[in-house]
Write a structure and sequence with these properties.
It is built from 14 helices and 13 strands. With about 375 residues, the chain is α/β, with parallel strands linked by helices. Strands 3, 4, 5, 6, 9, 10, 11, 12 and 13 form a nine-stranded mixed β-sheet that branches. A two-stranded antiparallel ribbon has the order 1-2. About 50% of the residues are buried.
Length: about 375
């Protein structure tokens, strides 16, 4: 095991098989859970495959991917794992702004996994470059409707390959908070102070706060709407027991009934319901699309990067992702062998329709985004 510091962040570099073997054997943590805990602590897990070299393998993996925790499983990219006898190295982030700032500070991944609302900002910052779609054999298998989202195509060039999409939501436990007429207002209601928890990402608090404030254009607020939004944020921070950035943290708090209402990703909602919690969703839903971008200064083999992107479109890996993460996959063939009951419980029986419900996460104009980032940082600091 080696420890190093990159731009103030401690990085743990060791094979995940070695790091997790004892935990997995003891049944204490899954690989995904350990990755979440490490990411929440600011640690990085670098996957160094210990498998025997495959006779067909062309080279060893030399990619570094800046990723959300839980998405590094080799089951999601089996073709790449076979071709290169293992998986890339991964560095985890908890929100897209953190990831961008890490890149701008000098960390150079080959691929990253942001969402559509951030793509233009990443492009304007010089962090990503256009994708040569001709180098991705399965590109034509992607659901064409996904490319209509802002940020996917900029100035006629593709900057993101969609990979996961779905929706997030505000949920509450009626056993803890018996709400008569549940609304997003529960997140700022002083009567429930200490019993609610908000996510810390800027795009999330702009969306949720904007709905509570009654802003007309949630992602492009006027000056007066920004003033209202900031007041909502102050109350949101005041009433939240904590602002969460890692799914494991909020799942544990909801499972222990420490928290009665929270902003949740669908994967967390599914996981908690499997534990027997009675959770209700408060409308509107907040749909989103995330995917992969090619970073400008990635040092790894570019062909490996394209092979990885193509492998992530494989329907075999797509099915594994759907079942593990509860999110939709861009290849329609991924759904063929997935039980309809599962798809229905995840809200993705008709995946494209799921994007048309509620309020879609949209781009925030660059100048306003910078202003909102500064204001949100001040509010969190108690200023």
């Amino acid at each position: 095991m080696t420890m190093s510091s990159i731009h103030g962040r401690v990085m743990l570099e060791q094979p995940p098989e070695t790091a997790t073997a004892g935990y997995l054997a003891a049944g204490a943590l899954t690989r995904r859970e350990l990755g979440k805990l490490m990411a929440g602590a600011g640690l990085t897990m670098v996957a160094m495959p210990l498998v025997t070299r495959d006779a067909e393998a062309e080279a060893t993996p030399n990619l570094t991917i800046l990723e959300w925790n839980g998405y590094e499983a080799p089951e999601f990219h089996p073709e790449y794992a076979k071709k290169y006898s293992g998986s890339p190295s991964y560095s985890f982030f908890s929100d897209e702004e953190e990831a961008l700032q890490k890149i701008l500070a000098g960390f150079n991944p080959d691929l990253s996994h942001p969402c559509t609302a951030s793509i233009r900002r990443w492009k304007d910052a010089g962090a990503i470059k256009p994708i040569d779609t001709k180098r991705i054999e399965r590109w034509g298998e992607i659901m064409p409707e996904l490319f209509s989202a802002k940020g996917m195509v900029i100035d006629g060039e593709h900057y993101m390959m969609p990979w996961d999409f779905g929706f997030s939501q505000i949920v509450y436990n009626p056993d803890i908070l018996p709400l008569d007429k549940p609304t997003y207002g529960v997140m700022v209601d002083e009567a429930y102070a200490g019993k609610v928890s908000m996510n810390s990402q800027l795009d999330v608090v702009v969306a949720v706060g904007g709905i509570i404030a009654g802003n007309k254009n949630i992602f492009d607020p006027s000056d007066a709407e920004i003033d209202r939004l900031v007041e909502v944020w102050r109350q949101m921070v005041k009433t939240s027991r904590f602002l969460w950035s890692d799914a494991t943290e909020i799942e544990q708090a909801m499972a222990s009934k420490e928290i009665g209402a929270a902003y949740l990703w669908t994967s967390s909602l599914a996981a908690l319901r499997k534990q027997g919690l009675r959770l209700e969703v408060i409308p509107p839903l907040l749909p989103w699309i995330c995917g992969f971008v090619i970073n400008t200064k990635g040092p790894g083999d570019e062909q490996q990067a394209y092979d990885y992107l193509n492998a992530m479109l494989d329907p075999v890996g797509g099915k594994a992702s759907i079942l593990a993460n509860s999110y939709a996959h861009p290849n329609p063939e991924s759904y063929v062998s997935v039980d309809k009951v599962h798809l229905r419980s995840y809200g993705i029986e008709d995946p494209i329709a799921s994007l048309k419900e509620g309020i879609f996460f949209d781009e925030i104009p660059a100048a306003k985004r910078e202003k909102l980032i500064a204001l949100w940082d001040k509010v969190r600091a108690g200023l």
